[in-house]
What we know:
Layout: E1 11-17, H1 23-34, E2 40-44, H2 52-58, E3 61-64, H3 72-82, E4 86-90, H4 105-113, E5 117-123, E6 128-135, H5 141-152, H6 164-172
Parallel strand pairs: 1-4, 1-5, 2-3, 2-4
Antiparallel strand pairs: 5-6
Amino acid sequence: MVGEFPYHVKKCVIVIAPHTSNYDYIIGRLFFFMINVHVKFLIKKEIFVFPIGGLIRYWGGIPVDRKRNNHMVDYVAEQFSKHERLYVVVTPEGTRKLVPHWKRGFYYIALKAKIPLALSFLDYPKKEVGVMEIFQPSGNYAKDLAYIESLYRDKTGRHPEQFNLYVKRDSIG
Length: 173
């Protein structure tokens, strides 16, 4: 485990990348169990089937229907106003497969709720998981995303060919 979890921050969106394998969930859950932090996390609704669905919900799973616009940004941002302490984990790729760009929801949840992002990572070759820094979104999405992505360029997922920042890094040389 690398870095310190920001226990002093009572509310944040925990961004975790790269997300290229089902093992990411297991490692992430173990990480949060080990540091004794209760998190909520967004996960596709298809996972919420018997018998595992109840356990996923108990552990903090929030089902997401990725096929429709269900105002998830508004819903999650609103949850922060209802809790004194809340951590919500979001994978910015939104899937384990290669995507050309990160989804924007994690950023806009934090911006709307006026809370920071805890920039967290998995790095398989180094066998590391941790938190790099706390980042407060400025409202300038392009500038902030360029900075955030720069922190992840040296992180490698279990399947590097499925992480868009790794693919871009390789194609750039």
